[in-house]
Specification:
alpha/beta; Protein arginine N-methyltransferase; 195 residues; Rossmann fold; 5-stranded parallel beta sheet; 5 strands; histone methyltransferase activity; protein-arginine N-methyltransferase activity; binds S-adenosylmethionine; 7 helices
Length: 195
């Protein structure tokens, strides 16, 4: 995220163009990582910011908070958002949880859990909504996957024939489940490709 200018600018502008949402308010940064979102919330006037980070990465935001003189406002809490207990409910939840195709990285559920546990009924979410754009497409990757699948099935049939011939065991009854497994976990699974 830190190297993604578009994303950084979007969060920065969202916070500082909506200072009234942060000024004097209690904020929660879910999965704080480097901690920059919490620091912006503090700079925008938040009364208190809780940064929750599941990993040992939490040592870095702690240092960053001190270096930016926000130690009286921003508090780092190490633990997963599903387990930690905050001292109070919050007015704002900010989080950078989006992955490839929005949902990859599986953080969405954690943000929803944070909302249900800790957001005041009058509270706001940053971001509050998202759009997913879908379009059918054809790529050479699909053809490649199909030929890999056919190759795997060819290998299986050879294996099955040889096992019968050399080892006296008929494996052909497993051909259908093998094919279904290949389809489910390889052929029909998503491919993440760069543009
Ligand atoms: C995409 S990064 C966020 C980047 C962050 N905004 C920054 O400025 O570096 C997601 C972070 O959330 C943390 N995380 C993921 N699931 C979590 C959970 N359930 N509770 C707390 N932290 C979580 C990860 O360890 C990771 O540091």
């Amino acid at each position: 995220m830190l190297c993604d200018r578009v994303r950084m600018d979007s969060y920065y502008n969202a916070v500082f163009d909506n200072k009234h949402h942060f000024d004097g308010k209690i904020v929660l940064d879910v999965g704080t990582g480097s901690g920059i979102l919490a620091i912006w919330a503090g700079q925008a006037g938040a009364r208190k910011v809780y940064q929750v980070e599941a990993t040992k990465m939490s040592e870095h935001p702690r240092e960053l908070v001190k270096a930016n003189n926000l130690q009286d406002v921003v508090e780092v809490i190490e633990g997963s958002i599903e387990d930690v207990t905050l001292p109070e409910k919050v007015d704002v939840i900010i989080s950078e949880w989006m992955g490839y195709f929005l949902l990859r990285e599986s953080m969405f559920d954690s943000v929803i859990c944070a909302r249900d546990r800790w957001l005041k009924p009058t509270g706001v979410m940053y971001p509050s909504n998202a759009r997913m754009w879908l379009a059918p497409m054809r790529s050479r990757l699909a053809g490649q996957k199909m030929s890999d699948y056919e190759g795997a099935m060819g290998d299986w049939l050879c294996f099955s024939d040889e096992t019968k011939t050399y080892y006296g065991v008929d494996m052909s009854v497993l051909t259908k489940p093998f094919s279904e497994e290949q389809k489910k976990y390889y052929l029909q699974s998503c491919a993440v490709v760069g543009c």
